[in-house]
């Protein structure tokens, strides 16, 4: 799945396909190097405290800013540390976001989960077209599972489970992105981890940590890249807020 040419890491998207899922999803276990992970986490943790929004089940940073009440993004570039090397060159070499309205992600969510924290299963918000998730962690042993369920099965157990290792990239698109609910169970231990229950088991970087079928969670930090459809320039937004 991974190769190296002239010092540059190359990724084969088709080789990363999660074949056990009913729609397009891809998993690259070594998307970030350990040095890149440390550098990104240093950038995240050194952000000013007001950058963090404390939610009931996690805390969150939004870059370059939070969306307005009308799900509009105020036009502003992403900081360089969120662009290189993730968007350029890696997203571009994979061809993801090529068909997005803006040709590249313009919004990033940074979520931090402590053990026992998670997120309710939700459907993707209408103004978002794509979501690509490089997963990184502040602890060398941190792994995370994500559950997916069809909209009609909201109150039932998830149909599909994906185990996301630190430094990995999970890509969902098409029906899996728009018609399925995505969430993270609120638990301190991920259980029933095996080839029968985990859709991407054959794509994991290492399975030894899960030989006992469970894993103790530690702190997880994830970056979610999105393309927001509605974008407004600052001047136009100020006129709107002023009623002119």
TrEMBL record:
<keyword id="KW-0560">Oxidoreductase</keyword>
<keyword id="KW-0223">Dioxygenase</keyword>
<dbReference type="InterPro" id="IPR037151">
    <property type="entry name" value="AlkB-like_sf"/>
</dbReference>
<dbReference type="GO" id="GO:0046872">
    <property type="term" value="F:metal ion binding"/>
</dbReference>
<keyword id="KW-0479">Metal-binding</keyword>
<comment type="similarity">
    <text>Belongs to the alkB family.</text>
</comment>
<feature type="region of interest" description="Disordered">
    <location>
        <begin position="119"/>
        <end position="156"/>
    </location>
</feature>
<protein>
    <submittedName>
        <fullName>Oxoglutarate/iron-dependent dioxygenase</fullName>
    </submittedName>
</protein>
<dbReference type="InterPro" id="IPR032862">
    <property type="entry name" value="ALKBH6"/>
</dbReference>
<dbReference type="GO" id="GO:0005634">
    <property type="term" value="C:nucleus"/>
</dbReference>
<dbReference type="GO" id="GO:0051213">
    <property type="term" value="F:dioxygenase activity"/>
</dbReference>
<keyword id="KW-0408">Iron</keyword>
